[in-house]
Amino acid sequence: MLNSKIIGVGHYVPERVITNHDLEQWMDTSDEWIRERTGIITRHWVKEGDTVSGLGLEAAKKALDHAGLKAEDIDFIIFASMASDHDFPGAGCFLQEKMGLPGVPSMDIRNACTGFIYALSTADKFIKTGTYKNILVVGAEIQSTGLDLSTRGRDMAVLFGDGAGAVVVTATEEKDKGILTTHLHADGRFAKKLWCEWPSVTHHPRITKEMCETDRIYPKMEGRFVFKYAVTYFPQVVQEALEATGYSVEDIDLFIPHQANQRITEAVAQRLGLPWEKVVSNIHKYGNTTAASIPIAMSEAFQEGRIKDGDLVCLAAFGAGFTWGSVLMRW
Ligand code: ACO
Fold first, then answer.
1. Which pLDDT tens digit goes with each residue over 182-240?
2. Is residue 134 flagged as an active site residue?
3. How many domains does the structure of the chain reveal?
4. Out of 258, 261, 282, 314, which one is annotated catalytic?
5. CATH number, residue 149
6. Overall pTM > 0.85
7. What pLDDT sits at residue 175?
8. Whose CA is nearest to atom 44 of ligand 1?
9. For site-directed labelling of 256, which of 51, 214, 267, 291 has its Cα 20 to 30 A away?
10. Regarding beta strands 76-80 and 106-109, do their DSSP bridges make them parallel or antiparallel, or are they unpaired?
11. Ligand 1: residues whose CB is within 6 Å?
């Protein structure tokens, strides 16, 4: 029986740093409000001409270097993102072209903040069935170009950042290493609690000049509603992974949650009874980078020496859909 394990991890964020004070110039907000409610101090935003596949490429190069592999060793690409470089096709094909891998399959996963967990889980199954040997899993996002930077959109605009993270997942015969279990969920009854309504195929044409003058082309969220479900489902899906493998919270060496909001991460750690030193949080630097947040946090944790050989590492996410999920692995 084959197992799957991560052998390379890398991340990339654009150079342009946007502080809370920068946001104060465009909308009625304050550094104090943003820090207190979200924990965010800075985020990185792309410049004109940058692409989601381009961010993904930079992260992928680092993950490949870390794995000691070349692009040609990759036999499947899974790209988690809500965005693509253009309306279609998905960013995975643009990345595959940049990597020079014609013919190698490339799949897009559009599950917002839980996208990377869905992607990693998919990679795990393709490896365990013996279909592919080395899978590149990318989480990359450009949010900044779709935000309402006026006071009208301040509740969402202050939260999000751009960036990318990538991992190389490979087949191994080691029994006690790698991905132990994955758990995925969705509940479409809450799709409109965190969403972007327009452009929409229900309109003929799907986007008009008049539509662009409304706020319905920007992402919307019922913040308190999302908070309530996030702090319930995050711990639940971690417990599900622990129950499936016979471990307990005390066995977790490192918890890497989707970086939604510092207050959500703190509430989840508290509900789980996880000491803060076992939790990875970098939202103060990058904001919420949706599908990219877990691989960025994992890559940084690895660079900082916080992930060691043999550690039990738990990943979990919650986001639009609603979707939520977890991955438990032995590093
Ligand atoms: N700056 C200043 N004031 C603001 C801002 C801002 N950026 N945004 C909203 N406000 C104002 C509101 O207009 C409101 O003013 P009012 O009282 O005069 O009407 C006041 O602040 C309070 O607004 P609320 O929306 O009630 O603020 P809340 O305390 O709920 O905090 C927040 C908002 C941070 C979004 C919170 O609801 C939250 O933490 N939600 C969790 C969801 C989340 O963070 N999601 C991340 C993305 S989804 C994901 O990754 C899972």
1. 999 999 999 999 999 999 999 999 999 999 999 999 999 999 999 999 999 999 999 99
2. no
3. 2
4. 258
5. 3.40.47.10
6. yes
7. 84
8. 261
9. 51
10. parallel
11. 29, 33-34, 37-38, 113, 154-155, 158-159, 194, 223-224, 226-227, 230, 260-261, 263-264, 288, 318-319
